[in-house]
User: Fold these one by one.
Assistant:
Number 1:
Amino acid sequence: MNKDEVLSARVPVGTKAALTLLAQRSKKKLPAFLNMLYEAVLESESVKVEPTAVVPGPHKMKRLEYLLPDFLEKPARQRAEQLDFKLAGWVSYMVQAAVMREPVLTNKELEAVRESNRELAAVGRNLNQIARAINEEVASGRKLTASGLLRLQSLQEVNASVAELREKIDQLVIARNRAWGNEQD
């Protein structure tokens, strides 16, 4: 059960009457209306913390202690194990992700991302080969039909999308490595 605290405040003459009137208009009792007001103000004024910038260079790991309610220990350990982490490593992973606001991939996730990028590269190479074959036909004097031109344009657009996606994946890998203090690509 939540415990409430009492907050008393002095206000200029007429303020209480004005707040009471506003509360009545919103069909709330004064305490509920005041709660709504301070919650809105606190939410709008909540602390805005900028993501932590990556500091280049090798970093030493520092041991920290933290407290966790006992009922969360087992599910936290299970979640860590699902990701092939020990609990302390997983907590470190979660803190980095929250503070840096950049992706912090596990080694398994990183390898999956790299594999998908290799597969995209293969798709891109295949698209280039198809487009090259069509262009060679045109260069040899064979005229392309309107639908052939559309297919060639479509291939070029898909190829550009693949290249863009590969670039985004590369940036994800770079961000992951920076977040873990690992500058290798």
Number 2:
Amino acid sequence: MQRIGIIGVGEIGKAVVEGLRKEGGASPEVFLSPRGARTAGELSERFEGVRVCAGNQEVVDRSEVVIIALRRQDHREALAGLKVDDDKTVVNLMAGVAVDDLRRTLATGAPIVRAIPLPAVRERRSVTVTCPSHPVVDALFDELGGALPVPDEDAFNVFSALTGTLTAHYAYLATLTSWATGHGIAPDAAERYVRGLFRNVGRSLNDETRPLHQLAADHETPKGNNERIRTTWFDPSNAAALESALDGLLADLE
């Protein structure tokens, strides 16, 4: 496993470190930028071989694989003047920052690979989209749950837009809980039931022999409760509104 540097130690950077240090896995040396100092310091205290560097240039100099996990709006300022030799491999986790854009910022000929790891990499359960395919980067994310290489940045941006639906799912569950509470159910009982209900539904996603539309059909009885909510709430206009929101996000990412 390569020596890995992380510039921008937020939630995803932290999850990557925790996944790499999960029991039974490879343990590369990890070098963290001081950006996100509290999280970086906590990780260095928890894990042997994880060090906080004095600055971003030291992260790059000590690493073979450099993961950049900054906020999109901060990256030009944070990376200004950074020297990245061509023998490094750069992994770009920033949504909406294309390979050519980052290459201009870094002024490097090093390979640059985009990736979309999710917090579940800490449990090695996240499939990470990569673009373009690169043996070192794909192997890194295979270690963390699986790599899904895609052929170009147009396809990559579609997957990036899909990640924007995660909190809407949590808000949907919170709305169900709030509705039940409004009908006299104790809040803790309502939340416990909704969590259990959808935790079990989530487990069915592990059955990859059935496509998603088949899973939906298998959970419905004709003219039953599930079919009623799907056809009256998640109707064609509702589905079209979701697709429109995704189209708008995709346009911004492009």
Number 3:
Amino acid sequence: MPRDALVPALRELWRWVEEHDEPVSFPFEIRFVRSDDIWLSPAYERESAVVAFHQYHRMPHERWFSVCEDVLGAAGGRPHWGKMHRLDASALRPLYPRFDDALAVRDEVDPGRVFANPYLERVLGP
């Protein structure tokens, strides 16, 4: 997400945790990264704050992850296309300015989709 959106988003998530009976077992991992020129990078062309959220594997995670995705997404966050999230290619495309350029490279180097799998077909398209 853009760096300047981090604190308000974290405050909103804190309020949500305070108001709901949702066990959260891990702290956020937050790091700051410089902008880069990698087409499918969440930090593409912007200084960013990267927020990672986790949950213990034996605890329910769906509700908490949905809230985190909603709040961080509304703050301008771009989920890492290779990590767990709910978005598909149609939702990721407007978040990544060079999404279609990356897909053109994929079409060139893997036209038979040797490296495809169901997850990549969801987030990058068929």
Number 4:
Amino acid sequence: MGMSYGLSPRRVEAIVEKHGGIFTKSVSGRTDYLVKDYVTKDRLMNGRPARAKREAIKNGTKIISFDDLEDMILYGKSM
């Protein structure tokens, strides 16, 4: 599975920050959402996606798709 819509990490970061979010490259206890279409196995090295998903689950971070992120931005939906 490739990156959703061919978006680069910088483009996802710009979209998140444009709408008041804070983009980080790692998951912590302060992370609200992990955008799963962005973090994909074939795009990152050394198992980082698996680690991000494990950290999200451990910290209770919601894992959403890029479509979910778009819905949040366009329609004010909370996940």
